[in-house]
Amino acid sequence: PQRLKTAGRGHVRNRIKKHNPRLAERVTEEIFTALEAQTVVVAGTGAAVTIVPILARQLQDLTRQRAGVLAQVEALVEAHPLHRVLTSMPGIGVRTAARILTEVVGKDFKTAGHLASYAGIAPTTRRSGTSIRGEFANRGGNKRLKSSLYNSAFAALQHPPSRAYYDRKISEGKRHKQAIIALARRRLDTLYAMLRDGTLYQDPAAPIATEHSLAA
């Protein structure tokens, strides 16, 4: 604690920014608020002065290793023949493409609906006897793929056709998350066709560009 006080807010804030710029200001204030409120000297504080820098260096090493692994993954994805197909769709970057390649390519999905069910973004129908109780959110499916498809749909809101579809769902009474899931489901239909036929993404009424097939 004393070393933190000696270093000052500015130094601590700058160190945190290197690892997480968005949280630097808030975390710094929380640290110094806690330091100012501390009135008891805790036994072992002297040992912490030695241990904390060691842990900090280990964290930095892990951060560098993680960055190295991510760089390798990105290189592998960019070398894949379907990379251009996937990243041609608005909202899909290298990391989302990596998740899709890992979870989808090589598996046999007969239709886009089967893929949507696997991903957990197809609504489920509940029945009671012979009566249909309605459609409900799917709580199952591949959670990693579902998260990637959801996040890519959210990122695609900057794309006018995606935004228009989202706004229409909101106007129909859906909540934000429901509208994003609906958009992800719609985009998956397009993505399925792109992977099946090896075509790049095209806005409606645009000419089709061919890249590689799903079997490549």
Automatic annotation (TrEMBL):
Superkingdom of origin: Bacteria
Q: Which residues form the Transposase IS116/IS110/IS902 C-terminal domain?
A: 84-166
Q: Which GO terms describe its molecular function?
A: DNA binding; transposase activity
Q: Name one GO biological process term.
A: DNA transposition
Q: Which residues form the signal peptide?
A: none
List, alphabetically, the InterPro entries matched: Transpos_IS110, Transposase_20
PANTHER family attached to this UniProt entry: PUTATIVE TRANSPOSASE FOR IS117-RELATED (PTHR33055:SF3), TRANSPOSASE FOR INSERTION SEQUENCE ELEMENT IS1111A (PTHR33055)
Protein name as annotated: Transposase IS116/IS110/IS902 family protein
Q: What is the organism of origin for this protein?
A: Nesterenkonia sandarakina
